[in-house]
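Repro:
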Amino acid sequence: QVQVVESGGGLVQPGGSLRLSCTASGSIFSALVKGWYRQAPGKQRELVAVIIDGGITKHVDSVKGRFTISSDNAKNTLYLQLNSLKPEDTAVYYCKFGANWGQGTQVTVSS
């Protein structure tokens, strides 16, 4: 039974925007720490942003000012808004609720 579903990836030109969504069942969504990670080809998976206890947000330096993590508790959905995208943002993006991972969604930034 699928309990975490991601969507929103795609191909976008440099400077473009995407919004990633991740919906989870109630028991999983209630995790105190929710986050987005990414894994580029040949590289390790890395943290992008987290939201803690529904309010405190942290973004890694490479995405600060461009990406924004948020959550909608009424919809059991975690979001990642990606603006001013760069080719180096190309990766598979994963959401994570506590110890539960999403299946990943591909983001490709290319002209």
